[in-house]
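Holo prediction. Input below; ligand is nickel (II) ion.
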Amino acid sequence: MAEAFPGIKRIAYEGPKSKNPLAFKHYNPDEVVEGKKMRDHMRFSVVYWHTFRNPLSDPFGVGTAIRPWDDGGNSVENARRRVRVAFEFMEKLGAPFYAFHDRDVAPEGATLAESHRNLDAVVGVLKEEQRRTGIGLLWGTACLFAHPRYAHGAATSCNADVFAYAAAQVKKAIEVTHELGGDGYVFWGGREGYSTLLNTDMRRELDHLARFLHMAVDYRKKIGFRGQFYIEPKPKEPTKHQYDSDAAACLNFLREHGLMGHLKLNIETNHATLAGHTMQHELETAIAAGALGSIDANTGDTLIGWDTDQFPTDVYLTTQVMLSILNMGGLTTGGVNFDAKVRRESFEPVDLFHAHIGGMDAFARGLKIAAAIRADGRLAEFVKGRYRSWDTGVGKEVESGSASFESLEEYVMAKGEIAANESGRQEFLENLINEFI
Ligand code: XLS
Ligand code: NI
Ligand code: NI
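Structure of the complex:
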């Protein structure tokens, strides 16, 4: 097969002075930061859906993407050819991982059996290409939102047959993820939510979703799939309200239904902002519960109200993300997965390279800056000092559980009014961060 990206060679690290748009200025995979190679810190991943299946259409117009290797048809042959292109792209980019939905890689058939067969026919090529390149599957997932059968949701559908169909589809998707040695499997709600409460029995729908996830956990054990399960919060789109609306809602759901420990969170930037949170808020919420697993790296547009899934280029954002991740001790099974698409106006194949190179460089800078902030130590020292009253005396008694309302009343009676609070120093800290950016 002829090259899909002729004239583009393996993207190399050329350093910050390079003016070559097809080179890394900051992402140097072998460079060691805090004792670990950049490649292993980031575990960059390319998404199959946006990068190889998105025609770049929008609600107002058809797709604009020029993809000469793709005949636009829904044949297995086209799908198999696309795999070679995807791996040529990822190999040239130097991305160690990718992620897919079942229906991104292989066409849906007229029956479930045919869909399974189509998937198997493509998985064979995926396996071959993974072996040839050493590129791994970060996570797999199932598309439970595109087909009309899922109009009312999948695991939360009012129709039990749809639940069954979704279960059968996810069973197969987990099997192929396992077969491909995937490091994880993602559950994103898709249409698990509602458009109106007038027709919705929320209690039942949530119980069904929990049943579904428990069955997945059981099946995973049964077939010996050791990849990490993730749940990906998103508040809206396509439904008005999605049950997995943000990190806190997901954690509460997992706890309520005995699923904590079985699933971690996959946090996506644009979903955080749609939920009215910052990415760092969502990360810290997940980290505080010991449940951050992976991130979908993208960004939204402050002036457009939907999930624009743009490539992340804001170094302030990537610094915050990497600071949280480094403080957590790093990603293990998860990665920095570019759930992002090029703009409709960026329709040439080379734009796919510019987009990913920019995202990888932005994260590499974020990593280096975050490591410098940590090495400097003033930020962590400030936060630690701010809570020092909890390290001794009454604070320590509260934290250790030996204090009570009575003992605290007695303490305050003897001590009198609070002597002084200290400044939170927000501006000082913002300036401190800018010293490093
Ligand atoms: C959609 C989600 C989706 C998941 C995978 O907004 O981000 O792409 O990451 O199903
Ligand atoms: Ni996502
Ligand atoms: Ni998204």
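The chain has two domains: 12-376, 389-436. That is the main takeaway for now.
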